[in-house]
Amino acid sequence: MQGEFALTTFDNPFDPFEQFDSWFLFDVEKGYDSCSYVARIARTSDSFTEEENNREIERAIDEIIKYDFMNIYKKVKRAPIAA
Fold it and tell me: What's 50's DSSP letter?
C-alpha cells in the first residue's frame, strides 16, 4: 500500500489522521465540508479493494486541488503502517 491521503485546508491546524475530531469540527465550522466534497467526487465502491478505493480518493483529491481557484486546499499523506 502506498499510504492514505486526505484533503485539508491550509488554515486548518489539525491533522486529519491523528486529530480527526478536532480537524473535522474546524473544517465543518468554516463551511469547507472537505469529507463531503471528496465523497461527491470520488467514485469508490464496496466491490473495490481498500487500495483501489484509496487510489480513487487520491485521484478525487488531486482533481479538487486542480480546480481550486481560491487555493485553499492541500493534500496530506499518512505513510503506510509497517507490518
Answer: H
CA distances from 48 to 15, 35, 36, 51, 76 (A): 27, 19, 20, 8, 22
Name the pLDDT band for 79 (thresholds 50, 70, 90).
Answer: confident
Q: Shortest CA distance to 5 belongs to which of 69, 56, 81?
A: 56
Mean pLDDT of 49-71: 96
Nearest Cα residue to 77 out of 63, 65, 61? 61
Least Cα distance to 5 among 61, 82, 71 occurs for: 61
Q: So where are the chain's domains?
A: 4-77
In Å, the largest CA–CA distance within the chain is 40
**Which pLDDT does position 82 carry in this prediction?**
64
